[in-house]
Design a protein that fits this description.
260 residues, globular, disordered N terminus
């Protein structure tokens, strides 16, 4: 589990080699015990082929903000072992962490991730912060509030990047997309290919790299108890809906916010 320096968008950031053995998972779990939950320490994203109950999960990206380390967990190889392998305490697993309401985990639009995790591995997410809903709830008065923003738009709009940082971010995004986007001649199967190319590694890392900054921007604006409760309830509703038989992770409804 050698650390590899990731030079984009800041210094001191590291990501692990691909976590693809139970022994490596035990080491990861040991680093996740007794982390602070306020502010959240765990930022998560998933990649997969048609990521949903109808597709597969390839990689779970896990950024641990206190150490600035990102783990790329190989779900395609480990399957259920990724979630049920305990740490050295014999009881803490990735499943128990994901399902703990006392441990904060941050996602950007949790719906498809929750759908896939629940359908394929029986993971019932709890303790979730959804950055997409936080952004919607904290838009300035007069801004349209019906439609949701994607991650890229939130980054461009709400994180101050230098010209070089913005170019680095776009380059990593474009290089990765070129490999997995079928419209550009790519295939999502690149997330299941071993070894992962550097382009895909960097893409996966960057997906979660800026999430702590976004969370901090919106959390600072989310001061009204009324809206704090609204966001929390809407997040819980998203997780519950994603576990229902009728949930569909595709379609224009995914772009509409929960509030009129």
């Amino acid at each position: 589990m050698d650390a590899i320096q990731y030079s984009g968008l800041g210094s001191g950031d590291q990501f692990s080699g691909l976590i693809d053995t139970p022994e490596a998972m035990t080491n990861v779990i040991d680093t996740l015990v007794n982390l602070p939950s306020s502010p959240p320490s765990l930022f998560i994203d998933l990649e997969g082929v048609s990521l949903s109950r109808h597709g597969t999960v390839s990689i779970l990206q896990l950024l641990v903000s206190p150490s600035n380390r990102t783990y790329l967990i190989d779900i395609h190889t480990l399957r259920s072992k990724a979630f049920h392998t305990p740490g050295t305490d014999g009881k803490t697993t990735l499943k128990s962490l994901l399902e703990s309401d006392a441990i904060s985990k941050v996602f950007f639009d949790v719906r498809s991730d929750s759908d896939a995790l629940y359908a394929h591995f029986g993971i019932e997410l709890a303790g979730i912060h959804d950055i997409q809903l936080m952004e919607l709830a904290t838009r300035a008065p007069g801004w349209p509030s019906k439609y949701l923003n994607g991650l890229a738009k939130c980054i461009e709009k709400d994180i101050l990047l230098t010209a070089n940082e913005k170019q680095d971010w776009k380059t990593v995004k474009e290089n990765g997309r070129r490999l997995f986007d079928p419209k550009q001649g790519g295939s999502y199967e690149v997330f299941n290919t071993h070894p992962l190319s550097n382009e895909i590694r960097f893409y996966c890392v960057q997906d979660v790299k800026l999430m702590p900054k976004l969370w901090a921007v919106y959390d600072a604006k989310l001061v009204s108890p009324f809206w704090i409760e609204k966001v929390d309830q809407a997040t819980r509703d998203r997780v519950k809906l994603s576990q229902s038989e009728s949930f569909n992770a595709n379609g224009p409804h995914m772009n509409i916010g929960p509030w009129p």
